[in-house]
Structure formats: structure tokens, C-alpha cells
Specification:
The protein contains 12 helices and 10 strands. It is α/β, with parallel strands linked by helices and 293 residues long.
């Protein structure tokens, strides 16, 4: 399975505390119309951490149904409990997802051997291509390139990594140790273009929720060796990227979707709360300057 280009870590719209299926389907359709290369339901940006397993399975199924095979669907199915990750992966597989996104177990802080055993158990119970998600800022654990090599060698289903350390040296070392057949995806919009330059193949993106065409076009310009255009698009997105992290993700991006009229409003589940009042005019100003409002 080849993953290449921009994959949106989809925000999940809520209505009266429940998943807003109609808005979600329209959002997926808009993403595909805008030229996105793939979709990632139930990741951090999609607020999977506050969804029940039943809701998570339903959101993945909606995404697969609406996508109709036009782009790959990489379903968030990870957990710090191997047993739960297996259950979620089985649900993603039953829903028809093309691959799963598997976070390194948070809080537990397993050893390299524990990480290998975790991903191996998931793959054996529910064989499906998996993207390892390395985000030490949220998990308290950095999955080093040497550990990724161990995982790749032991788990054939592990085909890629979503690298969200912001460390370009680490990203480059992943390609060096794991080879070009193990796909490097940026998990941080700020490092999307630099990681392409050291052997990456794309990005799982927050900003592509609101700028899917720009992020996809940047990746494709790079692949076409039009580095000037790729840099131009990267610089265009830079101020919006910063705004997407003025507060904890997914608060700014979901607020932006509401401001743009793509979502009816910006509803969150505790412990995530709405954007602070003092940040609303700042976010609006950035979106207006970028031509999004």
C-alpha cells in the first residue's frame, strides 16, 4: 500500500453532544473535491479520546462509506491498552478502512520490546496496514528510529510512521535506518516540507481541514520537483499553521471550520473547551488574511 501526499486528520463535528453525521459527510465530500490525497478519521484532531468505541467505529464507517474508495482512509485505532487497540482495529477493519493509525501507548511508557510486542499483537489479531504514530508531546514516549526499525522488521503490517517530534534529524534517520519502503509522514504541519526533502512521502495534517487544496498542492509540487511552488505554498500556510496551535489542537481548527461555515458551530467535549474569547479576533484576522473568510 502506498501513502503519498496530504492526509487530513479530520475534525469531527458534534451536534447536541452527538456526532453530526450529515455535516461530517458533507465535510468529507468537500475534502475530496478540494483534492485531498487521503483521510484520517478518529485521530487527535477528531477528538477520538472522548469518543466511545461504538462512536469511533461509527465515525470510521461513515468516512469509509462517504469516501467510496476515492482516497485511502487511515482510521485512528490506537490505545495505551493493547486489548483496546485490538478491539478498535477490528472495528476499523470491519468498517473497511485501508489502514489504521496506531499511537505509541501513552502513560504506560513501554520499553522498545514492549512497543514491538504491542504492535505485533494488534497485527496478529487484526491484520491491516498500520501507520505508527510517534508524538512524544502527547504520549511521554519518543519512538526512536532504532525502535521503529525493530517494529518494521517484526511487524510486516507496520508500513509507515507519522513522525510528530518536529525533529528533522530524527525524521532523516528514520529513512536512513528503515529504508524508503517504510513511509515517512510528517505529523506536524510545520515540518511537512522539510521532511519531504529528507525522504518523506507526505503529511497527516491539521491545517488541511481548512486548506486541503494548499497542502495537497504543496506536496504534489514537491513531487513534481517544482520546489519554488512548494516553498511558496508552505510560506502561505505558515501563519495559519501558527494560528492552529494558539490553543490546544483541535480547538483552533474546529473554531476555524465554524467561522468558515463548514461546521454549523464548534462543539467540544470536556475536558476540551471552546476557544478563549480573546483569541477569537486573532484567529479571524489570520483566516481573513489567508482568504479563508
Amino acid at each position: 500500500m502506498e501513502l503519498r501526499g496530504a492526509f487530513t486528520a479530520l475534525s469531527t463535528p458534534f451536534k447536541d453532544g452527538e456526532v453530526d453525521e450529515s455535516t461530517y459527510r458533507d465535510f468529507i465530500e468537500w475534502q475530496i473535491e478540494q483534492g485531498i490525497d487521503g483521510l484520517v478519521p478518529c485521530g487527535t484532531t477528531g477528538e477520538a479520546a472522548t469518543m466511545s468505541h461504538e462512536e469511533q467505529g461509527r465515525v470510521i464507517k461513515i468516512c469509509v462509506e462517504q469516501t467510496k474508495g476515492r482516497v485511502p482512509v487511515i482510521a485512528g485505532a490506537g490505545s495505551n491498552s493493547t486489548k483496546e487497540a485490538i478491539e478498535l482495529t477490528k472495528m476499523a477493519k470491519d468498517a473497511g478502512a485501508d489502514a489504521t493509525l496506531q499511537i505509541t501507548p501513552y502513560y504506560n511508557k513501554p520499553t522498545p520490546g514492549g512497543l514491538v510486542a504491542h504492535f505485533k499483537a494488534i497485527a496478529q489479531a487484526a491484520p491491516l496496514p498500520m501507520v505508527i504514530y510517534n508524538v512524544p508531546g502527547r504520549t511521554g514516549l519518543n519512538c526512536l528510529p532504532s525502535t521503529l526499525k525493530m517494529i518494521k522488521d517484526a511487524v510486516p503490517e507496520a508500513i509507515a510512521v507519522k513522525e510528530a517530534t518536529g525533529n528533522l534529524c530524527q525524521g532523516a534517520e528514520v529513512v536512513e535506518l528503515c529504508g524508503r519502503d517504510f513511509m515517512l509522514l510528517s505529523g506536524d504541519d510545520f515540518t511537512a516540507l522539510p521532511l519531504l526533502a529528507v525522504g518523506g512521502v507526505g503529511v497527516i495534517s491539521v491545517i488541511s481541514n481548512i486548506m486541503p487544496k494548499a497542502m495537497s498542492s504543496m506536496c504534489h509540487a514537491f513531487f513534481a520537483k517544482d520546489h519554488e511552488k512548494a516553498l511558496e505554498l508552505s510560506l502561505k500556510m505558515a501563519p495559519v499553521n501558527r494560528a492552529m496551535f494558539m490553543e490546544t489542537n483541535p480547538i483552533p481548527v474546529k473554531s476555524s471550520l465554524a467561522m468558515m461555515g463548514i461546521f454549523k458551530d464548534a462543539q467540544f467535549r470536556l475536558p476540551i473547551v471552546p476557544l478563549q474569547d480573546e483569541n477569537k479576533p486573532k484567529l479571524e484576522a489570520v483566516l481573513k488574511t489567508a482568504g479563508l473568510l
